[in-house]
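[AMINO ACID CHAIN]
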Amino acid sequence: MVKIYIASTARGPRKGKCRAGYLLLADGKAYGISVSDMEEANRYGSLVRMLSAAAGRLNSKAEAVAIISEDDQIVTEVYRIRKREQDGWKRTDGKPIAEANAWKWLNKAIREKNYEARKPEAGDHYMDLLKREVAAGEKGWRIEHV
């Protein structure tokens, strides 16, 4: 199983500068971590963009994916992804969903996989690590071995 953790320094719906990141944990053996600055993003947008970026790094051999976020809306939306696709990536009022391109990319990456979305457990080492890295702001991609 591959676990994707996502975190952001953005708080709430107002757009502005923030930092966001993701951590990919592959079978508990190694992880990759990426942190980026974002010029014009809110919490939801920054998390969706990081989730999409992480999905782009998924190995095609990965059979199962767990998406882990502290944000309830992200967890809920991951489970709605098939419905969103059926609805043409539009809301019930006919307007496009926020961050539609990022959701489409994620959908393509996890289409043939077993997936789940959930909040992290209390004291989750990898979520704590990612939040520290995002707060510190060391941008880029690197791989670490557990």
Observations:
- The first helix runs from residue 43 to 55.
